[in-house]
Amino acid sequence: MSNQVLPLLGRIADTVSRAIAEVRPELAGSDPVVRRSDHADFQSNAALALAKSARTKPPELAEALTTALDVDGLIARVERSGPGFLNITLPDRVIWNQLSARLTDPRLGVSARDEGQRVVIDYSAPNVAKEMHVGHLRTTIIGDSLARVLGFLGADVIRRNHLGDWGTQFGMLIQYLDEHPEVAWHHDELDPGTSAVSALDELYRTARAAFEADPEFADRSRQRVVALQSGDPSTIARWKDIVAESEKSFHDIYDRLGVLLTSDDSAGESTYNDLLDDVVTELTDRGLAVDSDGALVVLSEEVTGPDDTPVPLMVRKRDGGYGYDTTDLATIRHRIRDLAATRLLYVTDARQSLHFQMIFEAARRAGWLTDDVEAAHVPYGTVLGTDGRPFKTRSGGTVRLMDLLDDAVARAHTVVADKNSELPAAELDRIAEQAGIGAVKYADLSSSRVKDYVFDIDRMVSFTGNTGVYLQYAHARIRSILRKAGDPDVSIDPGTELQPAERALALELDAYGTALTEVSDNLEPHKLCGYLYDLARDFTSFYEACPVINAEEPLRDNRLALCRLTARTLRHGLDLLGISAPESM
Ligand code: ARG
């Protein structure tokens, strides 16, 4: 059973709100503008923000609020500063009690704020018969972390892997494979280290060249597309085989990355095929889809092109075929209508922003997307190489993700071995894997999502700076302190005086839930990274200023409680980023 500890920030905000309502009933419900402060525990700017509406001067309103605040056991002291800031200090006992409540709660006191929401998160979505590239790494890692955070906050999360498993390109590939039974591409026929999807990717390029060079092959390929679309059994069997082999390669990467996606989450483009006719009929009946030179389009009312003409969303191509736009009209209708989603997230790169803006607009006009449903495109920037250009191999090709992960793990191996030469070989291997994978994920998650970021493995695996390895190490170090102390079950004595470094750490620990709700509101995992980094640094300052193991009781237990709560929060937060927290490093 969770205690659902309201963070001190929230409790202070409530108290200031009550004071506002008491002093100026007409301003009840106004934002109390409370935040953490360097001058005291918290600061409220309410007097400045509200003076005008209250027809008074900020210092006067500040004074009235101070008097009204002076009643609650929650507050020790209110000081006015500047033109009307309220600097609020809490009694030490209140802060210790707050920690105590978090300490005994498996949820660390974080409430399930998003309960009642059903969130569909569309992420990863690589293309069948194509090697996954670094862009897919970003959507996979960001989407997975959002799935974890929102799930922890109580939302019912449905993961959707919108695999690119349909399209005319498969006609050509199937035809080529049929005509070349001698080529190996199934995972069990390949050398270890080669995946089926990279074999298929290469075969696809060979097939493409044949298509361009040989008109007869091109004709046979076109007939294959017709066979695929009309459900010819042997063509469908071949296509299924290609999809299954590709998915297996994708899941090898997912397993290595430790993401939540399973094959149950796969719902590729082809799964919407049966819905497309119906979607198109509905859009036509509502007068939204209109003819344009034989094609069927929805003309945007929001987006115009170069010569002020509305940009079209392609509902049905002139040849009668359906494409990417139509499928996404079907995903949004299906997810709202059949899956009863209240929140829809599409995690794809920033270049698809226009696509989703137009899909959402059409869905709104069609009446599917109503005000009680939130639809958001969650865009992210490009992965750059250390030269500042889009990340590519030296020869300009796509970087194979497995190679990239191997590389990160190898470098992590070196830095971990340098740091701790006593680790037994098997343990070193295990920790290097956790550190290397964690480093790649953390580097991605900690950069501001919409910005481009530089993929620099050496920096990622560093033990210093805002890196995954730094946080894993901070956690491992605290665990080692706790082990040295015998890892006792401690309880807090709220009567001891808080040292400044203890106080800073305690207030930071208390802000964990707030950091998570911010991730949910803004869909930005880097807020959680920043929080964990600040927490680790506050711990370092605390540990430098306050002896733990050699302290007298009850100080010792209180400080061990701070250690334990910090280690648990770091581990929990890393887990929500999808990063493991080894016990030692
Ligand atoms: N397969 C697409 C790509 O590789 C991403 C699909 C994203 N999801 C969606 N519902 N459109 O770019």
TrEMBL record:
Coiled coil: none
Gene3D superfamilies per the UniProt record, alphabetical: Arginyl tRNA synthetase N-terminal domain, HUPs, Isoleucyl-tRNA Synthetase, Domain 1
Database matches in PROSITE patterns: AA_TRNA_LIGASE_I
Catalyzed reactions per annotation: tRNA(Arg) + L-arginine + ATP = L-arginyl-tRNA(Arg) + AMP + diphosphate
Class in the EC hierarchy, top level: ligase
Residue ranges of the TM segments: none
Entry-linked InterPro entries: aa-tRNA-synth_I_CS, Arg-tRNA-ligase, Arg-tRNA-synth_N, Arg-tRNA-synth_N_sf, ArgRS_core, DALR_anticod-bd, Rossmann-like_a/b/a_fold, tRNAsynth_Ia_anticodon-bd
Any Gene Ontology CC annotation: cytoplasm
Enzyme Commission number: 6.1.1.19
UniProt keywords, alphabetically: Aminoacyl-tRNA synthetase, ATP-binding, Cytoplasm, Ligase, Nucleotide-binding, Protein biosynthesis
Domain of life: Bacteria
Localization, UniProt: Cytoplasm
Gene Ontology molecular function, alphabetical: arginine-tRNA ligase activity; ATP binding
Residues of the Arginyl tRNA synthetase N-terminal domain: 10-90
Domain DALR anticodon binding: start-end pairs: 471-585
Pfam name, any one: Arg_tRNA_synt_N
GO BP annotations listed: arginyl-tRNA aminoacylation
Locus of motif 'HIGH' region: 126-136
Description of how the protein assembles with itself and partners: Monomer.
Protein family: Belongs to the class-I aminoacyl-tRNA synthetase family.
Protein name: Arginine--tRNA ligase
